[in-house]
Amino acid sequence: AGRxxxxxxxxxxxLCVCCCCCPARGLxxxxxxxxxxxxxxxxxxxxxxxxxxDFGGVFNTRYDQIHLVPADPPEACGELNNGVFIQDQxxxxxxxxxxxxxKTRVIQEHGGLAVIIADNAYDNDSFYIEMIxxxxxxxxxxxxxxxxxxxxxxxxxxxxxxxxxxxxISIPVNVTSIPTYEMMQPPWTxx
Length: 191
Description:
This protein is α/β, with parallel strands linked by helices. The chain contains four helices and seven strands.
């Protein structure tokens, strides 16, 4: 009962902070956005991501079942081999090779609705990188999120094991509306 009460208190405090601090237009810096993998079932968890600091758009729409498509090549620093599958979906990209903004622009140019950039340090299960604009003075309109390396690795690994080209996700997820006993968090990450 102690853990459940603590989790309810945490959710209540989180809701209070969000109601007082979050503008109607979207998330602010150092805040979290949550998404849930619906398929494949072995990674059916709620994941935490952070929005880019000073570039990209915000989620004005909730997508209940949208594809999370791993970019090919994973770094998404140029033309994509699977760009046709990125269109009207969300791309999963790996950090490295070019700036966060460049990756976001590549996904936007391929018609992606958003990009989730996973750290390329596969053992990173706790340190969020602050994604900032590069010095190019370019812009991007789609949301860009940072995902822990371990989470990105586990999603890609599951897709490879099942021979699937993408995962099905819901994004964003309002964690305050989910009962504590239903909060399916990745077992390798502590909240």
